[in-house]
Amino acid sequence: MGALLEWDQRLFTRVATARVPGADPALRRLSHAANHGRLWLGTAAGIGLVGGPAGRRAALRGLGSLALASFTVNTLVKWSARRPRPLLEGVPAIRHLTRQPHTTSFPSGHSASAAAFATAVALESTRYGLLVAPVAAAVAFSRVYVGVHYPGDVLAGVAIGAGAAALTCRWWPPRPVVPERERPAARAPALPLGKGLVVIVDDPAGSGAPRAPGAPLPYARRLRALLPEAEVIERGPDDDLAEVLVMAADRAVETGGALGVCGGDADAAVAARAAAERGLALAVFPGATADRFALDVGVRDLEDTAVAVARGEGVSVDIGVARSGTGDTWFLNEFSIGPYPELARLRAWWERRGPAAPTAALALARVLAAARPVELNVNGRPRRLWLLLAGNGRYVPEGLVPAFRPRLDDDLLDVRLVDAGRRLARTRTVAAAVLGTLEHSRVYEAERVPWLELDGITGGDTVAFDGEPRPGATGLRLEKEYRALTVYRPVRGRGEPEKAEPPAW
After folding, report:
1. Quick one: which of 420, 407, 343, 339 has its CA closest to 376?
2. For tag attachment on the chain, is the N or C end more exposed, with fewer CB atoms within 10 Å?
3. What stretches of 125-218 show up as alpha helix (H) in DSSP?
4. Residues 477, 452: contact at Cβ < 8 Å?
5. Is 416 exposed, middle or buried (0-12, 13-18, 19+ CB in 10 A)?
6. What is the three-class DSSP state of 131?
7. What sign results for the dihedral spanned by CA atoms 431, 437, 440, 446?
8. pLDDT tens sequence across 122-133
């Protein structure tokens, strides 16, 4: 231990007395800018504004990791180590901070915050991670350069910060940039410039809406620019979505093309049925509303889908079906009984304002507090439940508000439920969600099954398909239509050259 402390002191002296041209004022200001996480709060705001969905996830994970690292350093470690700050005798006066810190030296809180934010951002976006990492490294180095920390303090802070970022993956696994490219490709008609594609656009901006200079084009205009020969139809406020999509699907059959939809998950679900019943490929263009299905397929934006349409690249996906005496209802994401739609809505609202794990727990606590248990038979077994969720494919992570699906053609329903028959079930569920131990809780169950029989449903006035409430039913059978739909999705990245065919000998 003594040798390590001596090495730490010698290295501090070498750094603190080193002369780096032009670095003195720059590193002093950078170190000051990182006080109380201000530098990272501003960076997160910038990434969230310009980075799209991936940028917003990176910013949220970065802020959550920063909060966890700061809590660990300032409330658990600093006050137990009690290491005094270095002496400033050998540090040039130009580097001295205006206000010297009064807390103990080990570990470096600035370094922990910098490493936590940079690591978390890199987990979600390699591009933004590469931009943030040099700044984070400069902040960590500056703490030794201005004479307020030993190198060992900085290294310990970096380790704590990186560990905090990695720990967030337990509650919120990073979404893959492109889910499982190796899944089997499906035949889809190649439509260069979109010729033969009929697209229904549920465009909240509207083609005639005023647009500020530099603002993104409304979806209909962007689609016409990307696929100039496609037939782009804007849905009017009084148009029935199902009727419009049926007419568009019939038109696509006549032209020998494909059906397209630009909107959210509810629009995609209606379009999926119209396309599958006619044997058409479906082009899903992510809109301004919820678009989890498009992200799980592997299309991040309009350009991704446009590239796939032009190349004729697609994948096969399963469709969930709820069969009842009144007919069949299709779903692309999930079926639920209980307060799941409200839970998902609250979590999405709160996640825009704070770290994922705590906000998910807050949403869960609020929703379960107002929930009523539902009584039903699950595959013939009487149950009393707070919530039942059946996902179209395996969701990750484990929990009641799953984030994404690695693939959409596994022919299984991902069933998750909370048992209302156990003592303090709601409290135990929320506590397990906060601690990340939900999969081990006795009040929570998860299973992957090919079908699910539900009958004798009482207390569930409504059910939900893809988050959209519908009138309840006394009995339902949930099944899968295996690879029933072909969806356009780039098998290769944009600009990626086509693989050469092997010689036929």
Report:
1. 420
2. C
3. 126-145, 151-171
4. yes
5. buried
6. helix
7. positive
8. 998 888 999 999
CB 315, CB 483: distance < 8 Å: no
* Token representation of residue 328: 């069949």
SS3 277: helix
Contacts of 391-397 with C-beta under 8 Å, sequence gap 24+, read 391/333, 391/334, 391/415, 391/416, 392/318, 392/319, 392/320, 392/331, 392/332, 392/333, 392/334, 392/480, 393/296, 393/318, 394/448, 395/334, 396/173, 397/170, 397/171, 397/172, 397/173
Q: Beta partners for 49?
A: none
pTM, 2 dp: 0.67
Closest C-alpha to 277, from 14, 52, 481 = 481
Alpha helix stretches (DSSP H) within 381-484: 425-435
Q: Which amino acid is at 107?
A: P
**Would you tell me the crossing angle of helices 340-351 and 356-370 to the nearest 10 degrees?**
150
Write down the residue that tokens 């690249």 correspond to. Answer: 313
How sure is the predictor about 414, in pLDDT bands with cuts at 50, 70 and 90? very high
Question: What does the angle CA 88 – CA 90 – CA 94 come to, to the nearest 5 degrees?
Answer: 75
Q: List, in sequence order, every residue forming a beta bridge with 261; answer none if it has no partner.
A: 200, 284
- Greater pLDDT, 121 or 93: 121
Confidence of residue 501 (pLDDT cuts 50, 70, 90): very low
